[in-house]
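Entry 14. Structure prediction run on the chain below.
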Amino acid sequence: MSVNHDLIPNNVDLSSDKRLQRALNAWHPKFMEWWKAMGPDSFQGSEVYLRTAVSVQAGGWANYDFVRMPEYRWGIFLTPFKEERSIHFGDNIGKPTWDEVPGEFRKELRRLIVTQADTEPASVEQQRMLGHCAPSLMDMRSLFQVNVEEARHLWAMVYLLHQHFGKRGREEAEDLLIRRSGNSDTPRILSTFNDPIQDWFDLYCFTMFTDRDGKFQLAALSESAFDPLARTTKFMLTEEAYHLSVGETGIGRVIQRSADLMRAGEDDLVKAGAIPFEIIQKYINFWFASSIDLFGSEDSSNAASFFAAGLKGRFDESNRELHPDPQGNGSFSYETWDSEDQRVTHEIPLRRAMNALLRDAYVRDCERVLKRWNRILEQTELPVRIMLPSVRFNRRVGVYAPRCYDPHGAPISESAFEAKRDDWLPTEADKAYVKSLMHQVVEPGKFANWISAPRRGVNKLPIDAQYVRI
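Output returned:
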């Protein structure tokens, strides 16, 4: 099938760009092979109530209808800016933004785009089996909505590679369909996207914490001096917000169900078939730490170079009340502890701390959500509360990776960490228990015992609508 506007809605003039059409016509069948092999398992023929973007206008980006996922219209959209943009941070402030890739930044921009692009199919692969144990038709529909939009985000990044990076870009686009999440020979680029998602609580933690990292990475790229990248990621953020809500409300509904059972007199949540709060906390500890690693090292010369060149900004970079100095002058301090448990203070140029600044904005956003979850517990008058671990806890990347820290951020020995690991991180027994709760529920309006029903349906439909026609 030829790539055209009916198949791929777009605002990049695809119908008149013959070179781009040829490139995408060659890539499209390979994408469909990947989708049918690695997309949601056994549901390719099901009709799903999905949101489809057909334009960037207010009434065009959220069209709802029943669609078979292989027939979904994966579009290519760039957010139109109201006025001509100029570079607004780094060393080239005031100069015009770039419509084409500057030769001196070709390698760096390709690296940024490929790394972001690789996360999109990876998450689909991680989640492909979850439809078989969905806690409701409504949740199943939410999973498939996230999956098709991650695939659309892949199209958005592949468009940039085909349109602006020539033969090397086409090769990179093909490689995106060759790598596989968790494959030892061809793994995905970032380690978090090789971690297995074996149950729905994993999924909710992933969409809450890992997709939230995606929000902040996309926001930083949406400030880019490379205009096509800025416009592409700006539109992606519109859809990414729903992915975050799946995780935020999903965890909230799990907390609500466990709290309701305890308030009703159930002292043993395992016997009640719900998820105990200590397991909820362990999952949050794991996924938060894993997602923090995605920001990269807190001290990064690459991040400094990207900022200086105007390739990638801070979160909400244009907000000069938040970032009064667009050149990123000044310094940033952080503390580590050496092998003798001696505190070491490091002061680095602010530009080298751009990853840490983005991470800190992410942590504040997570803390906002955490307050909502804890309000659920306050209303049920239970003494338990959910916490975020320290950004030093269980790190595999960055300045805190060489040492062990407890969830409060205090330095501890490796042996002490291993002795407490099972108290802080999900054990195999914890995972097996949560997985044992995962049974598919397909009767409209019914929900698995371990999660509460949401407050409302999708797009004004009732909760008991037939969201997936299996």
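The chain has a mean pLDDT of 96.
Filed with the rest of this week's runs.
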